[in-house]
Write a structure and sequence with these properties.
Two copies of one chain form a homodimer. With 354 residues, chain A is α/β, with parallel strands linked by helices. Chain A folds into three domains: 41 residues, no CATH class; 147 residues, 3-Layer(aba) Sandwich (Rossmann fold); 139 residues, Response regulator (Rossmann fold, 3-Layer(aba) Sandwich), CATH 3.40.50.2300. The first copy, chain A, contains twelve helices and twelve strands. Chain A has a six-stranded parallel β-sheet with strand order 2-1-3-4-5-11, with helices on one face. Chain A starts with 8 loop residues before the first helix and ends in a 9-residue tail after the last strand. At the A-B interface, helix 4, helix 5 and strand 2 of A face helix 3, helix 4, helix 5 and strand 2 of B. The structure holds a DNA duplex (30 and 30 nucleotides).
Chain lengths: 354, 354
DNA sequence: TCGGTGCTTTAATACGTATTAGAGATTCTA
DNA sequence: TAGAATCTCTAATACGTATTAAAGCACCGA
């Protein structure tokens, strides 16, 4: 009646009067499946149906080395409230693509990992999955080095560089998106543009700068001013700096401004404040476009303004990362990179030049 | 340097000059772990760290050990757009609690499983996890029976009954929530209440009825009318039926109505239509409270009205399910049940009696 | 010195599957 | 009709782990 134990291939074999190997041949439907006589095949299938046989995933993985599981490792907690909105689309894309390909998704909790312990915690857990998608800003470089050294297949969401190695990642096409944004501004008549970026000079920032220059070149315009906002300055200092810049721009007939959002969006909030104070209306007196999404909990969102910007194709990036990872599993012949187009968002912060 | 194959306990054993069994004792940290000499333990740990050892989940499950992984199996896709809002909080709760207890979460993709195929898919994948949280409305009873028969630890989100067995689940406290809602209505002066429920007579429906009666008893009121709305009727029929009921209630001096949301919320939409047509204003002429959340994509939400209702503590339920599951893993001594309190939501569909 | 007593380690085994070399049986070829 | 070719099936094995009975060892009391 109700067995305590699930029926195995051995049970089926006994019932059908064949060997376990034959059962395996029939049910796994592998390449050698055709060599089984129709009559035998039928007997096995009948017995399997009769006993309610199902394959044991653990055993199959053990034998084959693959688990048909993809991991998602996040360097920060994905779910906490203030991050939820930002990370969810990535998660969504990863989950959908994973399911589509018939894999299961293993979410690794980095929460409370604190110290890296080899067995229970730490990066090694990842390896129960066939490969891993990595998500999050604040990478533990030691962990990352471990993964690379051990030749574990993984794909980053977002561009990552590790000196001396080639990582696989899916990155937004910041160059193209920025170029398009410039094109859009010049398209409505702007001829003097300024560009405001955080002080730290990572790749995403450099890419946007390249896009900025390319956009200007497209429009046959000369290079235009690029300004930095220190990330760690206090509010007052930021305001003062921006006020000075604003004067400079107005004096210089700048009619449009590109701003790269930083992690806290201080600059964006400050800009809104300073402009209001100086009687400069956006977009009437100055068009402003953001080169990316305002920070999820940052001031840029808090202002309530619907900024003209481009937005990360987060879901697509998640999906693409899974695709890349599966390629990597298929043939581990080197790192994979992929650029995904950003989506332009019409806001109300861009108009025609005065 | 970078091995192609993942190091196993045998590799560690060789490196540390001990046996595989010793390695297993050290790294699995089981009950007999203390019997290993400190010096040996250290040697093993060092070798493991050196080689980057990680346990093979498949092998461990096959053997019957624990993985510190909890599964989340959904009978429908959790993420598809139209369900996203509804299921997400459960997922959130499950994920948070899982992480809190230091487990990882394995999301099983039921997507595309369609027919239960004997070989690749099916319910048995679940067993790579230590236990499983089950989520979703449309259960495959055969799958469920399998799980029970095999004595696999799982906890349902939502009350489930399987004839002949005792399942573990976390369920909303419909009795208490309904009782509170009645109390609230009688508290503001209502003395004649009516109760509208779908035709199918599942436990959740029965619970609410019990709560209704209890609430009436609390207020010292006699039993009040209970009406059914057939679930499969067409729109016109539903409208006609409701119109008739509305007349009846008004003639009977009913001032407040309790409605149990059904899967498609036809009744709620119909109620709004019929009331408008008859010139009956909600809540001025008739107070209406929902005994639960309107269906995620149903008409009840579409009306745009902010119904006074109670809402499922979805996140709490997810968390509680994980807690129960961990208890179950600790001591498999029988099914566990838990009731979670619902949250009252102030809407604008309830007022004082006319 | 001998048997006993903790203490530490190991050999052996089972879990359920996929694969491979080859064994039997049957049919084809010359 | 012998030998080759073909068709079916099976025995044996490996995958990596947890568990258990027992082995080895040092130390102790008698």
């Amino acid at each position: 009646m109700s067995q305590r134990r699930r029926p195995t291939q051995v049970d089926i074999a006994r019932a059908a009067g064949v060997s376990q190997a034959t059962v395996s041949l029939v049910v796994s439907g592998g390449p050698a499946s055709g060599q089984v006589a129709e009559q035998t095949r039928r007997a096995v299938l009948d017995a399997a149906a009769e006993l309610g046989y199902t394959v044991n995933a653990a055993a199959r993985s053990l034998k084959g080395g693959r688990n048909r599981m993809l991991g998602l490792y996040t360097f920060e907690a994905v779910f906490p409230v203030d991050q939820r909105d930002f990370y969810f689309p990535f998660l969504l894309g990863v989950e959908e693509a994973t399911a589509e390909f018939g894999y299961d998704l293993l979410l690794f909790s980095s929460v409370g990992t604190g110290k890296r312990r080899i067995y229970s915690g730490g990066i090694n857990r990842l390896k129960v999955a066939d490969g891993c998608v990595l998500l999050g800003r604040h990478i533990d470089h030691a962990d990352l080095a471990d993964l690379v050294r051990e030749d574990f297949p993984f794909v980053f969401v977002g561009r990552r560089e590790l000196p001396g190695t080639e990582l696989s990642y899916v990155a937004p096409d910041y160059v193209g998106a920025t170029r398009d944004m410039v094109r859009r501004l010049t398209g409505v008549g702007h001829r003097r543009l300024a560009y405001l970026r955080p002080a730290d000079h990572q790749e995403p920032t450099r890419d946007r700068e390249d896009g900025f220059r390319a956009g200007l070149a497209d429009a046959g315009l000369p290079d235009q001013p690029i300004h930095e906002i220190p990330d760690d300055a206090d509010l007052a200092a930021t305001d003062a700096r921006l006020a000075a810049l604003l004067d400079e721009w107005l004096a210089d007939d700048v009619t449009a401004l590109l701003v790269e959002p930083s992690e806290d969006d201080q600059a964006i909030a400050a800009l809104e404040r300073v402009a209001t104070e100086a009687g400069v209306r956006i977009p009437d007196d100055l068009s402003v476009a953001l080169l990316g999404d305002p920070a999820p909990s940052g001031a840029g969102r808090a202002t309530g303004r619907n900024w003209t910007r481009f937005t990360l194709p987060r879901e697509d990036m998640g999906r693409a990362a899974v695709g890349l990872l599966l390629e990597l599993l298929e043939a581990d012949d080197g790192p994979r990179r992929l650029s995904v187009a950003c989506t332009a968002v019409d806001g109300d912060s861009v108009g025609r030049p005065r």
